[in-house]
Records
---
Amino acid sequence: MGRLREEPTREEVLNFVAESASYGNLGLFIGAGFSKAVLNADDKIALSWGELLKKAAKKMRVDYKSIANAGASYPEIASAICTTHSARTGETFEASSRQLKSEIARLTPWYPSPEQRSEYSEYLAAFSPSWVITTNYDLVIEALLTGRSISLGPDDPLSAPKGFVPVFHLHGVRTRPNEIIISQEDYITLFRPSEYRQIKLALTIKESTTLFLGYGLGDVNVLTALDWSRHVFKSGHGEYPSDVVQVVYDRKPRNSPYKDRNDIVIVETADLSVFFEEFADARAVREKIEGKKRRTVRNLAMELSSAESSMISRFIDDTAYRAKVLNRVAKFSIYVVADFISFLDKCVAETWRRSNPRGAFGGYNENLNIILDTLTAFDLDRFPPALFQTAAQSLQRVARFVGGDLGQSYSAKRTWEKRKGELSTKTVSELSNVAKQYGYGELRSLLKSAHK
């Protein structure tokens, strides 16, 4: 998994995002362009940040044109509106700021129509986001995720009850006007040392695949968080999908994705709904693959948990079949390890039953081969702990019968001498640690000859 390659195809990007959705760490970062795409098909309801400030200034009887200087950022313009209003009315800057935020709240009561909800709810459901972060003040996202989301303001932790998607309004939510972040003075608080929102935003991006929708990446605190995720929190990506993809509007979109100067994968589209349809197709294909995997895991678990004597005997006697089963278990160990431990116990018990008759030393050799195959089927870093302990206990029990003395199995000794080198140095070291911890004397003696 990890990250996308340097020059991915469009199909690779869509599949990567779909894979992240299946993995459970896909997050959506949504800007004003998303609300405009949802609401403005029939009428011009949703407004950009600049349009909001212009209308709010008019409500406050402030001449927007006189303060909207070329090159000024929107937070600077918002501060200028408050300063101008304060000077005209004699109110404090703080009072003017509160009025501006109240006007913003009154200007953003945007709700999708039933038809829009039907269409875009399905699109969002296809993404199965583990979280949503938005710079929007409106509740369009919550309206589309009805009964499946919880709305959070900038002072709330980015957390939600199980089964609900947290929708974190980075700049505030219209239902709590006093928490709205819009002026330069509001933004200053976002950059205080160890500020929760900034650190959490960076870590969330680091630990997820982040898909930017309808957002132009012009917010300095978002860019800072993105930089932190890449350069401050620099630990490796591990085996989970983690990258940043931005969907950008263009009337004549390129088909091939590309990376910008911030190392973000850019996918162009002439309409967000077109991209959503593309993704829905990729997600459907991925869900078929996931469905097949779930059936495979379910069948394997049932096979192991209800194993009959014929399967147990085959696992013991058929080396190729045993390797096939172990390979499947290693591939899906997180799902079937408990069933496999139970199955392994039955197989080991059968080898002990076979060893009961006088002179039946072959059972010890079968026992040893099963344990060695199990110990070599997993990398130690991915070895399920309970299974490792089970294997170590079994190896301790059979160790006393491995040798050339009276009552010991010569064939087991030959197997040990032939195969002990297959055990990795890390595995031998961990087995030695377990033997020392639990007083497994026979196992400690057996391991002394390993890797000599």
---
Amino acid sequence: MPFVIYTTPNYTENAVRFIRTLANLTDVRLGLISQEPKEWLPTDIQHRLADFQQVDDVFNATQLEAASKLLSGRQGQIHRILGAVEQAQVSVAQVRESLGITGMNVETAYNFRDKGRMKNLLRGAGLPCARHQKVTDQESAFAFADFVGFPLVVKPPDGAASQSTYRANNAEELEKALSLNPPAPGHEVLLEEFITGDEFSFDTFSLNGKPVFHSLTQYFPNPLEAMREPWIQWQVVLPREVESPVFDDIKQAAFKTLDALGMNTGMSHLEWFRRQDGSIAISEVAARPPGAQITTLISRANDFDCVAAWASMMIFGTFPVPERKYAVGAAYLRGQGTGKVREVLGLEQVQREVGHLITDVKIPKPGQERSLSYEGEGYIILRHPDTAVVKEALSRVVSTVRVVLG
């Protein structure tokens, strides 16, 4: 029975879902490496673990390798080492290379993690993406702004989920963004031209270098705008028409992107834009399953367990292709103002109007801290065979439900 290690910094809701899925595989012995103690996990998961090792920093390859060696000494040869957190992909790859474990290597992991390096590879392959430059001082940043023009996106080269990402509409805002994350030698900041248009994701299962299944979602609005405007109730829609010819251009570009970056076996999350003139531009791509409940949307749209399918593919190299059946959407419930959650209004009306479409819910709880993410304090997921029905239902949810803080 193969011994598999999963690594995560902490036990977020998403992390617990991945750990539970892996732990419940009957033909796998699961070892876990985390910064948090095993006792913080739900009891049912604790009892399913074959072994556990706590570290101070899972992003530190030296610590991760030492912990892996301890687990291997107790459990035998490591079949796979996995992680779904983007910031851990390089350190996990370094452990693979050092211990001779099958999986993504360090060079490929850097292709996905370093967004400047990624875009250089994409432009070299003739793929459409934003003009960009990594800078080590303010002078270079303003020179790039003079060349490209405003607005610009300012972010770390290895960022994730719009963390520490800012839109600069003018020189004053660029200076402010750089003051929050000052560029310096050894601490570069990535600048990109700001692309306007509709923003989407493109999520792919790849097996032995070949795409075997893909999905896509559309964001309403784009995450950066949602971060700038706390009043916006963010929505994500997975249309049933994934195979429509209107998406042929991004499908071809996405698969070419994965080839250029060196994807072999894994799930990838690519974000892209459809400009007003109909052309596409790739924003960036991560070599891990998507966050923001997108794995749940994919599961509900195709009536299968997306996380379990990822785990089986990564460990055993198998992937049964599911049937596309539904359109699915998520409405993210964001509190207005400051303070903790006091109450949630409008749930009864939503249940009356669209309750028959709801598949998953996370209702904000009184006393819950306000989230700093565009995902807010909770969500409601809906599905229906007709994409238009899902979009209309999402509109009803975000116009009716109100999370009151105070």
